Each structure stands twice: as C-alpha cells, then as structure tokens.
C-alpha cells in the first residue's frame, strides 16, 4: 500500500494539488488543460501538479484513494474538490478565486 501512502502524503503536504495528465506547460488532455487554465485564472501560483502519465501506480490507485474515477483531480488541504467540470463551475461562480485565496496560494 505504499502508493496509497505516497498519494496521501502528497495531498496533505500541498495546500493545492492537481493530479493531471501531462504538465501545466504541456497538458496531455483537454480536461487537464482546462483545469490548469481555470486554476491559473483564479490566481493559483503555488499550485502543485502531478503528471499521472509518468506515475502509472498513482494513476491506477488515485481513483480508489479519492473515490473519483477520472482525471484531473484537484485537492485543497487534503480534500478532493473535483475535476475539470467542477473547477470550471467554481471559476464561473467566483468561488475558485476565493478557494485559492483562502488556501493562501494566490
């Protein structure tokens, strides 16, 4: 279960973390690209990202850890916020900017 402990440590260590396909500079799927853009627009400058394509064990186990089947997955202070659609809804409502500021990462 070392990979589950690794995921938990990452999620707990970083106030804002996005598990995505690719990197912010080179996203490998449209959903990951839109999620990163939403977070950047909301002012997330100290966003930790994890490229699940480079970490097959994390990619295989994160859905079990979070009980969320798809990528990207965004966590704040150890709690799953959601994926791309939820991030876009939060951005549109103005909540994402508040969440990012609240996390002290703006």
Automatic annotation (TrEMBL):
<keyword id="KW-0676">Redox-active center</keyword>
<dbReference type="InterPro" id="IPR004480">
    <property type="entry name" value="Monothiol_GRX-rel"/>
</dbReference>
<comment type="similarity">
    <text>Belongs to the glutaredoxin family. Monothiol subfamily.</text>
</comment>
<dbReference type="InterPro" id="IPR033658">
    <property type="entry name" value="GRX_PICOT-like"/>
</dbReference>
<feature type="domain" description="Glutaredoxin">
    <location>
        <begin position="17"/>
        <end position="81"/>
    </location>
</feature>
<protein>
    <recommendedName>
        <fullName>Glutaredoxin</fullName>
    </recommendedName>
</protein>
<dbReference type="InterPro" id="IPR002109">
    <property type="entry name" value="Glutaredoxin"/>
</dbReference>
<keyword id="KW-0001">2Fe-2S</keyword>
<keyword id="KW-0479">Metal-binding</keyword>
<keyword id="KW-0408">Iron</keyword>
<dbReference type="InterPro" id="IPR014434">
    <property type="entry name" value="Monothiol_GRX"/>
</dbReference>
<dbReference type="InterPro" id="IPR036249">
    <property type="entry name" value="Thioredoxin-like_sf"/>
</dbReference>
<dbReference type="Pfam" id="PF00462">
    <property type="entry name" value="Glutaredoxin"/>
</dbReference>
<keyword id="KW-0411">Iron-sulfur</keyword>
């Amino acid at each position: 279960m070392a990979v589950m402990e690794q995921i938990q440590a990452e999620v707990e260590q970083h106030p804002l973390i996005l598990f995505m396909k690719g990197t912010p500079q080179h996203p490998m799927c449209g959903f990951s690209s839109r999620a990163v853009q939403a977070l950047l627009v909301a002012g997330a400058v100290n966003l930790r990202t994890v490229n699940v394509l480079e970490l097959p064990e994390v990619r295989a186990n994160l859905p079990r850890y979070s009980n969320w089947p798809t990528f990207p997955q965004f966590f704040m202070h150890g709690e799953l916020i959601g994926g791309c659609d939820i991030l876009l809804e939060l951005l549109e409502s103005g909540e994402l900017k508040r969440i990012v500021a609240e996390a002290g990462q703006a």
